[in-house]
Every structure is written in structure tokens, then in C-alpha cells.
Amino acid sequence: MTRPILHDYYRSSASYRVRIGLNLKGIHYHAEKVDLVAGAQKQAAFRARNPQGLVPMLEIDGHRLTQSLAILDYLDATRPEPPFMPEDDADRAHVLALSTLVACDIHPLNNLRVLKYLKAELGCEEAAKDEWYRHWVREGFDALEALAAPRAGAFLFGDQPTLADICLVPQLYNARRFSVPVDDYPHLRRADESASAHPAFAAAHPDKQEAHP
Predict the structure, then answer these.
(1) What does 119-156 look like in DSSP terms, one character per residue?
(2) Which of 17, 30, 89, 163 has a beta carbon 3.0–4.6 Å from 84's, enabling a disulfide?
(3) Closest-CA residue to 144 (of 104, 176, 109, 114)
(4) Structure confidence by residue, pLDDT tens digits, 55-69
(5) What is the C-alpha to C-alpha distance for residues 129 and 149, in angstroms, rounded to an integer?
(6) For position 121, which CATH number holds?
(7) Distance of alpha carbon 121 from alpha carbon 112, whole angstroms
(8) Do the beta carbons of residue 155 and residue 194 sit within 8 Å?
(9) What is the spatial distance between Cα 121 and Cα 103, in angstroms, rounded to a whole number?
(10) pTM reported for the whole predicted model
């Protein structure tokens, strides 16, 4: 069987999520590096495969899959163990809400192409750009901490990793890069600490990726 290929950038939050997911499912893959800073994602050869020109893209089972949450959903549907989502319908909705709060509300406002646009096209100074980043992360984390609190355990939901943790960990990594204080988020920090001790999360960390810039 052909080994899956992950088109990846080591600091991409979305790619980081998929690396975690692949590791949790025990899927061995080959990483193809796409240097977002150098603009490799805009090259014609890559856009021919993924018209959106973004990472991650996963080639698996004869398919080319894009968008991290769609990729993770496919992995969970085709490789059910360990599950990314709880069985109970209400719990599943709760975990999905936590996950999309990160992936759809926080992250899109702060990804590389948005930050580049703020600086290059709108003329934002570096300090203003960084404050934009911190504002939206703080607002999202405030809500995430409150929503997670009633059902949090060692992880963001209960005592086993779920899709919510897969989304949270990369966002916390980037928040720390931009000096966002996280002391006020005990449930987020506990989930991150639990994840850091898990081999699947540890192996997906940006610093563990080979040949990154």
C-alpha cells in the first residue's frame, strides 16, 4: 500500500492538527514540505493539486483531501480507533463546538496570509499586527475556557484526547509564539500539558519536524 503523503508546513496550525491526527491513528506518512513563507503554496504545480493553494493536503487511499477538519473527519470515519469524537450526541456537539471555536473563529483571523495582508497591503506596523493577533486569541480563549470548564478533565473534554485537543494544541503553540499570556486559562493549560505527554502530540510538534526552515 502506498504511504500517505502530507503536504505540510511545520508551523501551520492546520497542518499541525493533521500531523496529530495521523499520529493518533498510527498512520505512517511521508511529509512533503511546502514553504509558506517562500510562497511555495502559490506555485502552479501545487495549485494544480490543490486550487486553494493552502496546506495541509493529504494524499491517502487514492484521494487528495484538503481542509484540516475535513481530513480529520475522513481519518476518523475510515480508521475508527482511537475515536476523535465521543459517542453521545450532545457530547459530540460539545466537542465539535470547542473545535470549531478554535479552527473557525480564532485561527482564520490570525493565519499567515491574513497577517501578511495586514502588514503589506494595509500598512499595519509590526506592533499593531501583533496586537491584532493577541486580541483575537484572547477573545477566543476566554470563551473556550468557559465553555470547556464544565466537562473538562485531563484533556479539554474528559480524560482522553478528542478533536478539541487536536485543534487546541497548535493554537496554544502559536499563542505562546506571539506572547499571549495563558495563565488565566487553567483548563486549556491542563489539556495542553496532558497532550504534551502523549507521544502522538509530542511527535507532531513543529520542533520535531525534519528539515524545517
Answers:
(1) HHTT---HHHHHHHHHHHHHHHHHHHHHHHGGGBSSSS
(2) 163
(3) 104
(4) 999 999 999 999 999
(5) 30
(6) 1.20.1050.10
(7) 13
(8) yes
(9) 25
(10) 0.93
